[in-house]
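tool_call: predict_structure(chain=1)
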Amino acid sequence: MKSIQNKKNNWTKINKVILRVDSVDLRLEKKMSVFLDCGFENISRGRCSLTVNEKIEDSVDHLFIHTDKALMEVNVHYDSLHLEKLAKFISYKRNTTKKIKISLVISDSLMVNQSGDLYINDDVKITIKSISWSFPII
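tool_result:
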């Protein structure tokens, strides 16, 4: 018979982080920024702070995971047209029971166990290969 403790230590690699948006703030100064506070769908603990800024020449989409706190920081960059469209789509969301979901395909895999615990040894910065947004309508 296998013990529960052994099952908790079965680590698997994931190449996608799925976020559930809990709140959104829009900041408009010289340029627009969208700030999203998120929870995880495929990681059991922690929070994610996602910032969408206007793209500049050398900007790279990435996530940063801290080892000293249960926080992942994600920075995404869009050209001004796509950033405005994103803000518009977020404002159209009327269903308050279903959450916006964001899928981040990442360049390096992360390790999680069957309980969804994330294994991180050191602070890590990972490039985001692609992002997809899911907006519930009904």
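agent: Confidence is low (pLDDT under 50) at residues 1-5. Proceeding to next step.
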